[in-house]
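Data deposition worksheet. Section B asks for the primary sequence of the deposited chain exactly as it was used as input, without tags or linkers unless they were present during the calculation. Section C holds the resulting structure in C-alpha cell form. Section D is free text for depositor observations; keep each observation to a single sentence. Incomplete worksheets are returned to the depositor.
Section A, Depositor: J.P.
Section B:
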Amino acid sequence: MLSTDATLWPMIAHAALVFFLYWLLSKRRAEAVRGGSAEAGHFRENRQEPPESLLVHNNLKNQFELPVLFYAGSLALYASTADNWATVALAWIFVLSRYAHSYVHLTSNRLRYRRPIWIVGFFSLMAMWLWLAVWLALN
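Section C:
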C-alpha cells in the first residue's frame, strides 16, 4: 500500500542501535581488561561478564529477542504490501521504545521505567502482527 520504502527505515534505525551497543560492549570489555577486572581470555567462553559491561551485554541480548518478531513482521508487511502509514508509525513506536528501553537499561536500570517502555513496544509490535493477519485474511 506504500509506494516508498518507509517500512524499511525503522529496521535500519534499530540496526543502528544494535551496532552502537556492540561498539559500547567492546569498549567496556576492553576497559575492564585494561582496568584489571577481567582477562581477555574470559571472553573466549564468556561465562562471566565483568560488571563494567554486564548491562550492555544484557541489553544487547534483549535486541535479539522481541526484535526478531519486529524484523520478520516488518518484512512480511513489506513483502505482502500490507504496510501502510499506520504500520510504519507502529514500527517507529517499537524502535523508539527500544532506544528508550536501552537508555534506561544502560543508565538507571530501573524496572519502574523499563517495564512500561517495553510494554509500549510489545503492544505496537503485536498491533503490527494483528494488522498483517487481518490483511492476509481479507485479501
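Section D:
Residues 13 and 128 are 17 Å apart (CA to CA).
The chain has a mean pLDDT of 94.
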